[in-house]
What we know:
Elements: E1 11-16, E2 19-23, H1 29-50, E3 58-63, H2 70-86, E4 92-97
Parallel strand pairs: 3-4
Antiparallel strand pairs: 1-2
Amino acid sequence: RLLQCLRESDHAGRIGGDEFVVLAPVCDEATADRRAERLQRELRQLATERGWPIGFSIGVVVLNQPPANADAAIALADAQMYRAKQGGKDRICLAVAG
């Protein structure tokens, strides 16, 4: 079900604890925001069905230039995720870099 939120060109994985990453090449700001909202809706629905009292904070970064490395891209998205958590949790924060 969550995989339906991804394209064939996307890559998803767990980076630690309760943190996951989705790398979505060739994605503009509006598309990235819509896709994050869809993923959050699916996660909320899944949590409701399973009775999990949890929220989902999502950090999104649209990169206009290739990052120095994957760790640099993940660090940018991680910063946005923490911004979402600090803003009240269960939110999406998006930034454009590069």
